Amino acid sequence: MRTKLRRHPERRVAERDDILAILNEGLVAHVGFIDDGVPFVIPTMYARDGNVLYLHGAASGRLMSVTGSADQICVTVTLLDGIVLARSAFNHSMNYRSVIVLGNPRRVTDEEEKRRAFTALIEHVVPGRGEDTRGASATELEITGIIALDLSECSAKQRTGPPKDTKADESLQYWAGVLPIEMTFGQPLPDERAVEIPVPDYLRKYDRKRT
Amino acid sequence: MRTKLRRHPERRVAERDDILAILNEGLVAHVGFIDDGVPFVIPTMYARDGNVLYLHGAASGRLMSVTGSADQICVTVTLLDGIVLARSAFNHSMNYRSVIVLGNPRRVTDEEEKRRAFTALIEHVVPGRGEDTRGASATELEITGIIALDLSECSAKQRTGPPKDTKADESLQYWAGVLPIEMTFGQPLPDERAVEIPVPDYLRKYDRKRT
Description:
- 2 copies of one chain form a homodimer.
- The first copy, chain A, has helices at about 15-25, 60-65, 110-125, 140-145, 200-205; strands at about 10-15, 30-35, 40-50, 50-55, 75-85, 95-105, 105, 145-150, 155-160, 175-185, 190.
- Chain A is an alpha+beta fold.
- Chain A has one domain: Electron Transport, Fmn-binding Protein, Chain A (Pnp Oxidase, Chain A), CATH 2.30.110.
- In chain A, strands 1, 2, 3, 4, 5, 6, 7, 8, 9 and 10 form a 10-stranded antiparallel β-sheet that branches.
- In chain A, β3 and β4 (about 50-55) form a beta hairpin.
- Chain A is globular and about 65 Å long.
- Chain A starts with 11 loop residues before the first strand and ends in a 7-residue tail after the last helix.
- Chains A and B meet through β2, β3, β5, β6 and α3 of A and β2, β3, β5, β6 and α3 of B.
- β11 of chain A pairs antiparallel with β10 (about 175-185) of chain B, so a sheet runs across the interface.
């Protein structure tokens, strides 16, 4: 399998549920594709619906034009959990969780599937919002490019825990440990026409941690 | 230029200083490269030294083996600033800043440059740490793969501000605005041998916002 880990095999995430949890928590994916022999990496909104990953293609006309063909793409979602400070410069690292999906993208053309994917994208970013917004019109669906990617070929990697110094370095008197990283969300800022509208529950309690 | 924006040209970041500021603030890059005809995207630590981007190659044996050749790579750094909630599902978006760099990677072999890159990597992640850690030995430098990429071909894109609804949607009574996103850092967690060592200033005041 091409997503096999070549380095740090101990960092492999084995359980499928753990892989899906990373995809559920992430907000943005980095999509890699080849255009005229050159690799491009573009940040894109995504959502998971069962065993399928949907990508919002509008971010790049380039992505949409390439994935009309049978070319392969790579989708990577990375969550940063901490900066790992070891006593030696060499053993500094990051705590993270990362998923890589490889596959042949499929352009979504069926209107019903497209509508489902559209809702999944909104609900992925803000659960509860799908019901509380004006749904996409037929024309809006038409001009939105959506790509589906099967989740069959994917792998995940993570690093957790404290730094790992060598025995010889352990007694050095440098501070060592982890600086935790978190993605946090501020007070919702209404636009000028929404100041009188109560902030919805799904925003006041917004949190991406998934169980 | 291949990094030309095809969509949303108004989102282009024109000033070079603004492009560099995004690179300075980011913690992780997503590196895209082609291996045996397949595009791969891998999260990697990076640092900028003047007009050169250094990538820590240890994250992937695959990356290092590919970039030994003349192949091109793409390095993308993305900062998320907010979730943009419009009245219509269609106009939902993200506020973000993103840089894309394309080029032919160069494997760093000169020991002096390698040491400089190594320090740049540590200082990029934790400014001030370079002086407060055991520096890399000759052997450690030897086994660390570092890639240099010229910053000559790069572009940046950003979206800021409130949602943009159509005139027809503006009177709809859905909440609309921005949910700000921030990367925050928790209390430094010392490992068991560092509990007695005072937390260094550069960690207590840690912040990635750059001016």
